[in-house]
Amino acid sequence: MANGGLNISISEFKRMKNSDKLDLLFENVVHIRTSLNDYKLHKKIQYVWLSVITVFIAPFFGIKKLVGW
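The chain above was modelled as a monomer; its predicted structure follows.
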């Protein structure tokens, strides 16, 4: 099992006991939820960064008239 048992083949999954399957599914759900929270944080940082870039670069390209600043 790779990555702490989070990625296994279907044949390995079928051979597992039901309690082990439930543990594995729970670990996967927790992993996915933490990954999504990290993604949301990165997305927020990305939007802030793009907004800052737009504010500083827009006047140099004449976008000021289009945006209405």
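The helical segments are 10-15, 18-57, 63-67.
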